[in-house]
Amino acid sequence: MSFIENILKTVVLDEATISEKVELSAAAYRIRLQGNSIRKINFIPGSFLKMGIGIGKAELSMKDKIRSYSIWDINKEKGFLDLAIATHSNGIGSQWAKECQVGDTVYFKLKKGNFLADASADSYIIIGDLSALSHLYAINKNIGKNKQVASILYNQQKSELFPDINGKFPLDFYELPQNPSNEIIAKIKEIIPSLKGKTIAYIAGDSRVCIALNNFLRQELNWETKQIKTKPFWNPEKKGLE
Ligand SMILES: Cc1cc2nc3c(=O)[nH]c(=O)nc-3n(C[C@H](O)[C@H](O)[C@H](O)COP(=O)(O)OP(=O)(O)OC[C@H]3O[C@@H](n4cnc5c(N)ncnc54)[C@H](O)[C@@H]3O)c2cc1C
């Protein structure tokens, strides 16, 4: 292990242990991290972890040592949190999710970011793919009660989308091809007239979809920038965003 990796592990990053691993669908795992560090986390819904999953693997480049995963749910009192990791990418993150085992130690840093739950609107439209589903569940649970919520959660196989941590299905699932910006725009046009009061859009996952929908909402529907929250989780030409 390099000097920098050692510093990362011992000084910079927090430590936890994998206490549960469950296959959520053919393309996603739930991974529960347990540890004292989790009791002290200052959790804001929409936060994520930068995880040093490649630390100690000499064959990986520095860029391939870290991947970001959203906090799906947390129980600070009991000192655990849950992540949901999609495996379509087949990169080091996907490989790690498939191979990690209960009892493994993980190193992470909490990141707040800016894709957080904002309860200031009356209605919401929530859009994303399998990789963003757990993050969007966390947002959906923290935008306040009695809000109007429309949603488009999509994947090439609908069966790979999984329920929220409580076993419920609060968001609408669609079977769509990769990069389905045109299909989503057609659905948005149907949904928008029914949304009441101040509306916020949350869009996460495939960067191509984030860009296309942001452009559509701003340029064609004249939405204000502050009404549109986007977070690219992955880009077909890049590895490991953030
Ligand atoms: C703030 C933030 C939070 C995130 N939270 C989550 C989360 O909760 N769960 C989660 O699964 N991911 C999440 N991601 C994405 C995650 O960090 C990794 O990018 C993802 O797991 C791919 O990593 P990898 O090492 O497997 O593939 P990489 O080495 O990064 O990429 C390999 C190839 O796969 C492609 N690819 C990447 N993701 C996908 C995909 N979903 N479908 C198809 N092709 C893909 C890439 O474009 C690249 O060509 C988040 C990203 C960010 C920025």
What report would you give on this structure?
The protein is an alpha/beta fold and 242 residues long. The protein folds into two domains: 3-111, Translation factors (Elongation Factor Tu (Ef-tu), domain 3); 123-234, Rossmann fold (3-Layer(aba) Sandwich), CATH 3.40.50.80. Helix content is 23%, strand content 32%. The protein contains six helices and twelve strands. Strands 4-3-7-1-2-6-5 form a seven-stranded antiparallel β-sheet. Strands 10-9-8-11-12 form a five-stranded parallel β-sheet, with helices on both faces. It is globular, with a radius of gyration of 18 Å. The two termini are 23 Å apart. The structure holds flavin-adenine dinucleotide. Flavin-adenine dinucleotide (FAD) binds next to strand 4, strand 6, helix 3, helix 4 and strand 12.
What quaternary form is this? single chain
> How many alpha or pi helices?
6
Ligand inventory reads: flavin-adenine dinucleotide
The main pleated sheet reads as:
7 strands, antiparallel
Main structural class: alpha/beta
The CATH homologous superfamily of the largest domain is named: Nucleotide-binding domain of ferredoxin-NADP reductase (FNR) module
> Average pLDDT, to the nearest integer?
95
| CATH top-level class of the largest domain | Alpha Beta
CATH architecture descriptor text of the largest domain: 3-Layer(aba) Sandwich
Unreliable residue stretches: none
Under CATH, the topology of the largest domain can be stated as Rossmann fold
> Which H/E pattern describes the elements?
HEEHEEEEHEEHEEHEHE
Number of domains: 2
